[in-house]
Design a protein that fits this description.
138 residues, alpha+beta, OB fold (Dihydrolipoamide Acetyltransferase, E2P), 3 helices, elongated
Length: 138
């Protein structure tokens, strides 16, 4: 039927394809677990059901919404269509301020309330650290 060389090549080819498939599967699986996309308030409002997994919410900090009391930060994230109230206790990034981009990581209590355990401030493409501005001015 088939010679010994053909069977050996076919076996090698099958092992190679299976190994490649397994490698691609493992890479994609690890990327899925490590990549967390952020949702906008509008996307959260349209969710059919709430899950208890950690998620990220992104948008703009609503003007005049920052309230600090008892080491607790309360603010509103908006995408200019919908809003969600966020509560956070911890250190806030220097770039965090009203009318600026922010990503909050934590857990959704309901479609209007989010408990963050990490705040990530976003900046635009023109951002320069203060140290660089000082060096540039010299």
């Amino acid at each position: 039927m088939y010679g010994k060389k053909v069977k050996l090549r076919l076996t090698f080819l099958i092992i190679l394809v299976l190994s490649l498939g397994l490698t691609i599967f493992l890479v994609l699986k690890s990327l899925k677990e490590n990549v967390i996309y952020f949702l906008s308030p509008t996307e959260i409002k349209t969710l059919n059901e709430l899950n208890k997994d950690k998620i990220r919410i992104g948008g703009m900090v609503k003007k005049d919404s920052i309230n600090i009391s008892n080491n607790q930060l309360l603010f509103v994230i908006t995408d200019f269509e919908n809003e969600i109230t966020v509560t956070y206790s911890g250190l806030v990034p220097n770039l965090f301020q009203e009318s600026k981009g922010v990503v909050a990581e934590g857990f959704l209590k309901d479609k209007n309330y989010f408990m963050a355990d990490k705040i990530l401030a976003k900046h635009d493409e023109n951002y320069m650290p203060p140290e660089m501005i000082k060096k540039k001015g010299d």
